[in-house]
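Let us work through a complete example step by step.
Step 1: write down the sequence.
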Amino acid sequence: MKSITIEGSQRESVGKAATKALRNAGKVPCVLYGGDKPLHFSADEIAFKDLVYTPNAHTVVIKLEDGKEQNAILQDIQFHPVSDEILHIDFYRLFEDKEVTIDIPVRKKGNSPGVIAGGVLRMNQRKLKVKALPANLPDFIDADVSELQIGNKLYVTAISQENFKIMHPDNTVVCQVRISRAAMKAAQEAAKAEKEAAKK
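Step 2: predict the structure and record it as tokens.
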């Protein structure tokens, strides 16, 4: 999985006044969990744009002023309800031998015969929750639609899970091919015309 480096400064004061001063200076207060004790730090808001405003999943390298680096994943983020600015971010520390759970984007693979025939592909799940060791976290989960006819559904059980486990029930539909409205209307009109012709 691709990684993004965030350069930050460790925070000594974590009270409301200190947090407000940080935000006024264009910085985001953050906490890194998963170690002996939580690590409080801050970083420029602009440093998070490639991590937050993207459909892709990334791991994070948190690089502090003292030169220490911590590998982590984004766990939780709070936005201002009006301005949408980032208020706070929680990270979780990664350990090579410890599995983590993270949302991974789903990527369509192949061409569906049902879509070629006039159906519409609907992505029911844009992301899937996955559990794996950090080294085995995929950038994407491929949903192969090359066998889907109109009316068919692709379930999570059809997705290859070699080095990771998908944390959804087996009956979770990833995507499906539905008949388009135009095709449905045409079929209804054809059936109506056939019925009237039979009457004559």
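Step 3: interpret the result. The mean pLDDT is 89.
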